[in-house]
């Protein structure tokens, strides 16, 4: 395990994630069932009201996240430990009351049920938001982040497994999985399971508070206006919102109808077969995928993993739909396709969780302030919006209620809805790939430089935001060359070094060239996308400076994508331990702006290149 992801901190993190999703799945799956079967409340009143409440529940999340961040800054306490502790205790107490409703008039019971659900949703946010936000504080190292995100997702699956087991052994006790689920339910069974789940929530909150003693990243006090600017001005965070919204809509719609594919098989399987051929493979593959996520990314890339996962979801569902419509679907083929879909969805969810954590670092780099809980609420908001959309497309409420039974699904009623499900999955997956490919930019070598800068300045908080914005101060038009005609990499570096010497940025060309050569022996000058950024630091540098050249003919510089480079940025910085990270990170952010590198290539003069670089940096750090 990575040295930053020690068992001391990873275990409490996993425990609270396990409890969080256990209580969430219990309420999501069985509260509606409890109200309609045990209390005999009418679905006509319950469903519309709860849809409205669900919408309010979604909207409140960013405000709760901002409140958690602001209160922690004002009152100087560890927001993760304290908020999870308070939320866990209150949520456990509310849960017990939800499934132990006093006898009263039906109209009063409806009001009481609504009130208890609102209280549960509010207290659950105090667990949900900070526990997911923890992902971003384990360090900005990308390997560490991939491991911790996989742990968070795997513990969530384990929480879901717990609810399945409790439902199997308590709600359906001594009957196996019943053919008629609704007739076997009673108030005492729900109450018993709620005590178990509430106990797990309470104990996990206590354990987390006692054992999770990791210090929060130091930050300046964030005001409400700054937090809002960081949230809404973070373009990549908004991209993640739409990606996760499509992802969760796709997931929830499929989960709502996976049992229907089973009962549409010519030989209708029993409830036990549905349980063991659908639910168990899904859960096993999910856990294995999250355990392997870090290794898969290590030997490929985050970008490849996300695109692969989205294509896998789309292709697996197309095959499933084709086999279903041609009546060729068997229990074995269904189970295999369920495993492929589980693999795709889990890789996709782990990827978007990592991306969300990256967006927090990106926001800190861009705006100079950090707001973990408010920013991470985007993942929760998009997931809840996705489930709302799924309720509309696939009657998700009844689908969750019939998790263990085939008898709750009507073939005739749901046949046309499978076509809707097909359209939703196709539109969502294609939309995800288009948005990711065209708008998401926090990956590759560019973003690694930003993460390095955040990690460095996290240890040197005396550095102000203005010190980060250093490219325009290091740039001199006399060191910018348009349409340079060069035959080799050495020639380019020598020409740009002469320009740095001419503007008195370096005091020894010999020492600077030697340092550049040593640096390039460790890492190639080429980065990717036709861009090269050779750099060196030392006492031979008088001040931070950047020399720029656009080439008339691209030169091979050993870039990871094997593309020849036609944009060169030669960086010289003094050996002060921070300037090189600042300039590298800032330049990476500028060059990762969609289409900006091509604008530099199309520039018609050195002056135009200089102006475009300065204007882009000012725009990013206004």
Q: Tags for this entry?
A:
622 residues, alpha/beta, Growth Hormone, Chain: A, Mannitol-specific EII, Chain A, 2 domains, six-stranded mixed β-sheet
Summarize the helices and strands and which ones pair or pack.
Blueprint: H1 7-38, H2 43-75, H3 79-98, H4 106-133, H5 142-171, H6 187-211, H7 224-232, H8 235-263, H9 271-299, H10 302-325, H11 331-367, H12 372-394, H13 396-401, H14 411-439, H15 444-459, H16 465-468, H17 471-474, E1 475-484, H18 489-502, H19 509-522, E2 526-528, E3 531-532, E4 535-537, E5 545-555, E6 565-573, H20 579-591, H21 596-602, H22 606-620
Parallel strand pairs: 1-5, 3-6, 4-6
Antiparallel strand pairs: 2-3, 5-6
Helix pairs in contact: 1-4, 1-5, 1-6, 2-4, 2-12, 3-4, 3-6, 4-12, 5-6, 5-9, 5-11, 7-11, 8-11, 8-12, 8-14, 9-11, 10-11, 10-14, 11-12, 11-15, 15-20, 20-22, 21-22
CATH homologous superfamily of the largest domain? MFS general substrate transporter like domains
CATH class of the largest domain: Mainly Alpha
Order of helices and strands: HHHHHHHHHHHHHHHHHEHHEEEEEHHH
> If helices are DSSP runs of H or I spanning 4 or more residues, what is the number of helices?
22
Query: Might you state the CATH topology name of the largest domain?
Result: Growth Hormone, Chain: A
Distance between the termini: 40 Å
Characterize the largest beta sheet: strand count, sense, and whether it forms a barrel: 6 strands, mixed
Shape: elongated
What proportion of the residues is helical, as a percent range? over 70%
CATH architecture descriptor name of the largest domain: Up-down Bundle
Tell me the number of strands: 6
| Radius of gyration from the alpha-carbon trace, in angstroms | 28 Å
Return the structural class.
alpha/beta
Strand fraction:
5-15%
Flag low-confidence runs: 173-183, 395-409, 456-469
Protein name: Na+/melibiose symporter
Pfam family, one: MFS_2
Organism: Succinivibrio dextrinosolvens
InterPro entries: MFS_trans_sf, PTrfase/Anion_transptr, PTS_EIIA_type-2_dom, PTS_SugarTrans_NitroReg
């Amino acid at each position: 395990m990575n040295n930053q992801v020690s068992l001391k901190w990873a275990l409490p993190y996993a425990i609270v994630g396990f409890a969080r999703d256990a209580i969430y799945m219990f309420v999501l799956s069985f509260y509606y069932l409890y109200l309609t079967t045990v209390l005999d409340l009418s679905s006509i009143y319950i469903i519309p009201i709860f849809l409205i409440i669900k919408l309010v529940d979604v909207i409140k999340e960013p405000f709760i996240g901002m409140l958690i961040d602001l209160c922690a800054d004002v009152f100087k306490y560890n927001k993760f430990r304290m908020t999870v502790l308070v939320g866990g205790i209150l949520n456990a107490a509310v849960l017990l009351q939800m499934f132990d409703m006093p006898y009263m008039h039906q109209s009063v019971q409806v009001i009481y049920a609504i009130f208890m659900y609102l209280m549960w949703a509010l207290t659950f946010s105090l667990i949900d938001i900070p526990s997911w936000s923890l992902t971003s504080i384990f360090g900005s190292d990308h390997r560490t982040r991939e491991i911790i995100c996989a742990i968070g997702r795997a513990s969530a699956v384990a929480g879901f497994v717990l609810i399945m087991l409790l439902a199997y052994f308590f709600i359906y006790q001594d009957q196996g999985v019943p053919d008629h689920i609704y007739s076997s339910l009673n108030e005492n069974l729900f109450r018993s399971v709620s005590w178990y789940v509430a106990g797990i929530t309470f104990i996990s909150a206590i354990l987390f508070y006692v054992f999770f003693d990791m210090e929060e990243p130091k930050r300046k006090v964030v005001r409400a206006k700054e937090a809002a600017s960081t949230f809404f001005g973070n373009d990549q965070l908004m991209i993640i919102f739409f990606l996760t919204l499509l992802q969760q809509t796709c997931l929830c719609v499929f989960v709502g109808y996976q049992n229907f594919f089973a009962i549409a098989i010519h030989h209708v399987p029993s409830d036990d077969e549905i349980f063991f051929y659908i639910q168990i493979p899904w859960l096993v593959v999910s856990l294995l995928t999250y355990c392997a996520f870090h290794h898969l990314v290590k030997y490929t890339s985050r970008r490849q993993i996300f695109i692969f996962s989205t294509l896998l979801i789309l292709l697996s569902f197309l095959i499933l739909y084709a086999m279903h419509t041609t009546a060729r679907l068997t229990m074995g083929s269904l189970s295999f396709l369920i495993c492929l879909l589980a693999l795709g969805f889990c890789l996709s969810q782990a990827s978007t969780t990592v991306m969300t954590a990256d967006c927090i670092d990106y926001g800190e780099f861009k705006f100079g302030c950090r707001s973990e809980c408010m920013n991470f609420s985007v993942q929760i908001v998009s997931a809840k919006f996705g489930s709302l959309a799924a309720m509309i497309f696939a009657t998700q409420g009844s689908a969750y209620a019939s998790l263990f039974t085939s008898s709750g699904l009507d073939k005739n009623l749901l046949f046309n809805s499978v076509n809707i499900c097909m359209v939703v999955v196709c539109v969502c997956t294609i939309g995800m790939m288009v948005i990711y490919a065209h708008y998401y930019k926090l990956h590759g070598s560019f973003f690694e430089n930003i993460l390095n800068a955040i990690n460095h300045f996290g240890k040197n908080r005396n550095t102000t935001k203005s010190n980060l914005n250093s490219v325009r101060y290091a740039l001199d038009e006399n060191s910018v060359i348009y349409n340079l005609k060069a035959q080799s990499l050495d020639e380019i570096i020598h020409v740009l070094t002469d320009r740095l010497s001419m503007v008195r940025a370096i005091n020894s060309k010999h020492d600077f060239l030697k340092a550049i050569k040593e640096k390039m022996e460790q890492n190639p000058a080429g980065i990717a996308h036709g861009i090269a950024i050779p750099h060196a630091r030392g006492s031979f540098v008088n001040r931070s400076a950047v020399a720029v050249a656009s080439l008339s003919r691209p030169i091979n510089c050993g870039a990871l994508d094997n593309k020849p480079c036609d944009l060169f940025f030669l960086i010289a910085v003094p050996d002060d331990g921070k300037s090189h990270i600042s300039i590298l990170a800032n330049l990476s952010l500028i060059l990762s702006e969609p289409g900006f590198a091509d604008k530099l290539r199309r520039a018609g003069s050195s002056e135009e290149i200089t102006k475009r670089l300065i204007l882009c940096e000012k725009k990013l750090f206004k």
